[in-house]
Amino acid sequence: LAIIHDWLFETLQFVAGLGPLKACEFRTNLQVVKRVLTRDSLYSTIRAVNEKVFTNSAGFIRVREIGETPSDLRPTELLDNTRIHPELYQMAKNLAEAAIEKEGMRNNEEVDDDVPSMAVDRVIKNPNALDSVDIAEYAQSAHVEGRGLKTLELIKSELQRGFQEWRRSYSEPSQEECFYLMTGESKETLFEGGIVQATIRRVQEHQLMCVLECGLLGFIQKEDVSDDGDVELKDKFSEGTSVTCRVKEVKKDKYLVDLTCKESDMREESRDDTQHRDKRFKSDITFLLNEQEKTRLKKEDYIRKTF
Fold it and tell me: Where is the S1 motif domain (predicted)?
């Protein structure tokens, strides 16, 4: 397909071992011959790439039959239609032979003499034949150790489903997932009952407009400021002041957070807060309140000295 359609060549530069220049040269060579029968011919016959580039890229270049193709022009190596590297073809053929032989013994069938040459074809046409092969057991009998065991597992998966798309199908993120992606927060860092730091951006008559460290907008209503009843927000708070708050509600659909800094709410143990808290954490909200009070007194002292 890449030989026929120019637009498919655009992704060739991202194949391991290639790049913009090598991919362009590769394309030019292929367009001259117009047909590739095997992966090996890319290096041995067509000379589209040198030996080193071929070694790096061979497992990612797919050679397969397309549509009605004359028998003499069909690809001769079935494994070229998988991600299995040419250096591992013999290992793949041995595994296919073992699968066919095991399936024949299990079904009390006689194994044909042409199993070595036809094993790969039969396994590809009947992928379930490999289900009976225990890779760990086969690796031990074939004296394959170390990383070879993982290689055999990958070979088995490619023989069953060559060039299958292993990535998950795209699905639209939910509203909650979008919220956490946009804010950089998570269920463990921002939740109802959790303690957060907020900076006051605007002091209004009935509420404080704040910004959390993650950039989310938060509001503290007048009744959630103090246990002392009616207070004048402009007398107690000023813009730019940092406030320690507890999260009352996270409005994910509006990207807003309702907060409270009442002393009674700050001392109250939240079930969610306890759930997300480290087991070694010792509750000492007095420290937070003292720090908040120190900040307030320091700012008042600064204003008094300025005047």
Answer: 193-262
